[in-house]
């Protein structure tokens, strides 16, 4: 009696699914959770996944009308919301993902690096610790000698097509480049065949080595400007690395493109310092209504910033490099400066 009941139940279930939609020869036993295709066996399931590029996993965010929802859909939505809540709580407790903006208090070594770069008129921007570029950065400041040792990323452009490199660019990295050496001295080990590195990379850098160190042109990839991924600055190979970085914005470490042609590599365009200055001014300065002249506005802004930093130093008891968020400090600032 029990066997007859189970057989009848199975027949009713298969008849409810209908015929197999793959082979159309047998009654369907399974329904795909994602695309709801009815199948009868494992081979038919595999065929339907291959033809429809289906992974068989139900889309948990798919819209279901309220009148079609069952206890299964309600339970699935409840579990999905629980998982989202648990994921958000885990992210809050992860120290690497706690901050979404630039940290105010830098470690002593990074603060010294940024202040030393500022004295050299270099806008050094340091990323958060969970960024890959920050993790790769090996730049350090020799505090006793007052000398930077930069990590430099060299991108040799116009590599032969048979090398099968992205954008025909070969990438090399020097972890410690003395800022007092010229660009020619830093890159000579890749071009002069008397050096072992140049001999090892002869297949990739044959065009650059043929042109010679005197024919190479150097381009610093732009940062902090619009369309920075496709813009670069022309550098002087006879000047030191530190002199070439003056007035530039550097994110963690410089990226320098090297080509044997007197023009930017393919896909890049040249930009000069005046264009960068104009674009940064447009982004940083607030929009003002017609009134006093631009020079007067600039003087007022300078005076305000002077008062601001004096108050910051008095409040903190030491020199500060960035503004504070403390409410008490903001109240003092508002009392001293008329906006």
Automatic annotation (TrEMBL):
GO terms for cellular component: nucleus; pre-snoRNP complex. It comes from the Eukaryota. It comes from Drosophila mauritiana (Fruit fly). Required for box C/D snoRNAs accumulation involved in snoRNA processing, snoRNA transport to the nucleolus and ribosome biogenesis. Residues 274-299 are annotated as: Disordered. This is Box C/D snoRNA protein 1. Interacts with FBL, SNU13, NOP58, NUFIP1, RUVBL1, RUVBL2 and TAF9. Interacts (via HIT-type zinc finger) with the RUVBL1/RUVBL2 complex in the presence of ADP. Keywords: Isopeptide bond, Metal-binding, Phosphoprotein, Ribosome biogenesis, Ubl conjugation, Zinc, Zinc-finger. GO terms for molecular function: zinc ion binding. InterPro entries: BCD1, BCD1_alpha/beta, Znf_HIT. The lineage of its organism: Eukaryota, Metazoa, Ecdysozoa, Arthropoda, Hexapoda. It holds the Pfam family zf-HIT. Belongs to the BCD1 family.
